[in-house]
Amino acid sequence: MQPAQRPGGRTARVRTAVHEAVLDLLREDKWDDLSIAVVAERSGVHQATIYRRWGTLNALVDDVVVERLSQGSPVPDTGTLRGDLEAYALQVAEDVAGPLGSLYLRAAMIGSRGPEGETFLIERGVQLQNMLDRAAGRGERPPTLLELMEVVIAPLYYHAMFFNRPAGPDHARTLVDRLLSLNPQIRP
Amino acid sequence: MQPAQRPGGRTARVRTAVHEAVLDLLREDKWDDLSIAVVAERSGVHQATIYRRWGTLNALVDDVVVERLSQGSPVPDTGTLRGDLEAYALQVAEDVAGPLGSLYLRAAMIGSRGPEGETFLIERGVQLQNMLDRAAGRGERPPTLLELMEVVIAPLYYHAMFFNRPAGPDHARTLVDRLLSLNPQIRP
Q1: What pLDDT is stored for residue A14 in this prediction?
Q2: Domain ranges of chain A
Q3: Contact across the interface for B164 and A114, Cβ inside 8 Å
Q4: Half-sphere exposure of A58 (CA within 13 A, CB side)
Q5: What digits encode the pLDDT tens for the residues B44-83?
Q6: Residues in domain HTH tetR-type (chains A, B) (predicted)?
Q7: Tell me, what DSSP letter sits at residue A3?
Q8: Using an 8 Å Cβ cutoff, are B87 and B78 in contact?
Q9: What is the topology classification, in CATH, of domain B7-55?
Q10: Lesser CB count within 10 Å: N end or C end of chain B?
């Protein structure tokens, strides 16, 4: 008989096992057949446990991606709006060029099969909004989160997707220039 | 014995059969397993014929998508730059919201597995460049094709992908306003 585990320890281990299984399956190009049943089999965690904890496959994939983003690509805090935006843009340009890039696209595609209006990566959106709020708190005039997404992030993904040639750092900086020039007053 | 067919007639029928097979397979969510062998089986056209005609799966999918776009969403020619850009943006917003939207995304994902730098939808790019050149020919100052893609098209795809809620016509017009305000002189 195994000694009793602390609930926190077991919970953390279940989370790690399930996350690793999702990442493995996504890396293996199995994302079109991805389901909670498949994740359960791969992770050795019971389906019922996964359903209870995450509810839906979309929520699970979202949790995995947000965790990876938060660890590998934390939202910058450089002290200036331009510094934060450039650091973030360079990070995204690098992420979409690497193995994580197709993983995010896959995760987004899985998410886009869910109900209309279901927002993906909402937790990441909160972190980015905090970054913009910090700039406002310093007296800078940040763009909206929507402007940041549309003017900087969307093109970076678009280049990776449709041109199969991720934008480099210079291009990422150009997109930040464009964002900051939408309204000259927002430039620090 | 069948009467001999004119080569043009046979060529056209082969093209139609192969295109229909690709569209069917993409609609059926079979795109992760899409291959020339699968298309050959579905279309009844010999694999060797498909390889000879299209060369690669990417080139075939590209041909299918460009044909669908050219027929269903011809590049506008309204007589003014703003008119063309708005008509085009509204069309893309509508396309990504409909069944064609996920088809394009799927096709792009398939394309993005090809060699780095392989450009997708190049024929469509030529049509759009012609639209911008017509504006220049009228003495208007059009944006570059890259600016059009980044400022208007990328966000429309991004909304459909990550927010699972395609942008409506008002939003599409706002993106055109943003594009035309990148440089005030380009506004007609």
Answers
A1: 93
A2: 7-55, 65-186
A3: yes
A4: 18
A5: 999 999 999 999 888 888 888 888 888 878 899 999 999 9
A6: 12-72
A7: P
A8: yes
A9: Arc Repressor Mutant, subunit A (1.10.10)
A10: N
A73 DSSP assignment: S
Give A20-54 pLDDT, tens digit per residue.
998 888 777 666 678 899 999 999 999 999 999 99
Q: Summarize pLDDT for A110-134 with one digit per residue, the tens.
A: 665 555 545 566 778 888 999 999 9
Per-position DSSP letters for A130-171, written without gaps between them: HHHHHHHHTT--PPPHHHHIIIIIHHHHHIIIIISS---HHH
Nearest C-alpha in A relative to B124: A162
- Nearest by Cα to A187 from A88, A83, A75: A83
Q: Which residue has the tokens 């440089």?
A: B183
A155 and B149 in contact by Cβ < 8 A? yes
DSSP A141: -
Contact assessment for residue B41 and residue B68, using Cβ atoms and an 8 Å cutoff: no
Query: B64-186: which CATH topology?
Result: Tetracycline Repressor; domain 2 (1.10.357)
DSSP class of B1: -
Closest CB to B164 among A120, A160, A165: A120
Closest CA relative to residue A31, chosen from A15, A46, A42: A42
Look up residue A167 and give its two tokens.
Answer: 């934008």
Alpha carbon A72 to its chain's center = 10
Task: Give the span between the Cα atoms of B130 and B96, in whole angstroms.
Answer: 23
Residues 6+ apart with CB under 8 A from B114: A164, B56, B58
Question: Helices B36-43 and B57-72: crossing angle, nearest 10°?
Answer: 60
Q: Cβ separation of B178 and A175 shorter than 8 Å?
A: no
Structural tokens at position B175: 């993106």
ipTM: 0.75
> Which of B116, B162, B180 is the best residue to mutate to test the A interface, defined by the most A CB atoms within 10 Å of its own CB?
B162
DSSP notation for B119-156: PSSHHHHHHHHHHHHHHHHTT--PPPHHHHIIIIIHHH
Q: Which amino acid is at A83?
A: G
B173: Cα separation from own chain's centroid: 20
Tokens of B119: 């450009």
